[in-house]
Amino acid sequence: MLIFVEHNIYPTLSSHKALPLYLMQDSKIIELLKELDSRMLTRFKEYTLSPYFNKHEATTKLCLYLLKHAPDFTQPEKLSKDRIYKRIFPKEDFDNKKFHRLTSQLLLLLHNFLIDDALQLKENKRMVILLEELRQYKLEKHYRSTEKKYKLKLAKEHLNHHSYYESQYKFYKELDYLFVEQGGRSYNENLQLANDSLDNLFILEKLKMACDMASRNKVIQAHYQWSIMKGIEEHLQDESKEFDSIIQIYHTIFRMLTEAPETTEKQYRMLLELLKKYASQFTKEEILGTYGYALNYAIVKINQQGSTYLEETLEIYLYLVESEAIFVGGFLMPQEYKNIVTLAVRLKKYTWAEQFIEEYKAKLPVDVQNNIYKYNLASLQHSQGDHNKALETLHNVDFINPTYYLGTKIIQLKIYYEREEGEAFYALIDACQSYLRRSKQVADYQKKSTANLMKFSKKLFKIKEEIGYTKRHIIQEAVEKLEQEIEVCSSVANRDWLTTNLSRLAF
After folding, report:
1. Which of 416, 499, 407, 401 has its CA nearest to residue 465?
2. Which of 181, 243, 306, 309 could be bridged to 301 by S-S, CB 3.0 to 4.6 A?
3. What is the pTM of this model?
């Protein structure tokens, strides 16, 4: 809590150390209310005022008082506990225990509102609950009408596969309950359909979890172990059975992540084929989840092998952007924007890159929009050889995010190399190496790949400086040695830039 604000408002109480304890500014309920938009705040007010959900007058008064200051709560002096208490209980002295019970009651009401509001959007779940209630009241006419509505709605609704399988399992299981209660003694298809839906739900979720575990094992050297996957894989390899597309895709992803390196490329290619064939049937969440694994595979290959996978990685990104599956809260995240521009630049698609930079600038989060736009524009300008414009564009751009800080330094590094400004070049490398050693915000993989870029760039520039002063065969030997070092290094940022400039020094 910022005590300075309180001192400005209550100068006579500046030495009153207990004051912050009587403010609600950092309470759980205010923390939650700050995150709700105006529509949700209005709905919560209506919910609280409804006697069906809330009959407690003091809770209603507390809610109305807090909502007057929501969602910003910029006047902390009006959020003191004793002031609020006096508004609700004008004839009583402040009772901290009673106030705590009251705020807890309102917080519980807010939690219930969030649950009920979310359930309103999940009509298929509500209809299954309704079927259960109608069965218990033995209202078969209503039951059959609701059953028909459910089937019509589900046929039109675009659910993710998890929700679809879960809904179908509960729906068919409910129909089977009615069948048994009515004395059914013959074969009932609903029981089989419930079983099949549960199988699909279980297999899909096990595959997704196993893929997540396998991916984390690779990235952070974790030791997650997936249980009963051997049995599931044997089941999925039964050629007499036909499995839904989403299950085929996650099974392929799992194999891509867990099989021997010599077979993963085959699984990756199969994954791309399946995605092109079926992704149009998926929700945005499913598109991002499945394509994300293909994207990660391709990016790792780029870092290991250079330019081979650039074109297809750009294609994957473009599908994620065009489908808006990669958007968060309606915005294209800065890192994804940067990755797409970087790919286009490396493929020398300069006109396309410029159009993308301009077209999607407005889709960037507002608070970082200008900085991210300028950084990517400078990257393009540098690649086109306009060094002065690139440096001018980067001037006064401040990046707190380490990824963009390092990205800016790498652009400057390349410009100094190409201009042969040795003093500035070596000073920048020293500054970056120091930053990488000190920074706790840079991810280990990024730290390693950037450190290797700096190390190899320094060697590259030293070779360049020796040309004209050293015998040609010695230069050639140095070039070949550095080429070998870069080739065997598993993680190097801007590998293509290094190898391209190194080849220009060879005779």
Report:
1. 416
2. 309
3. 0.74
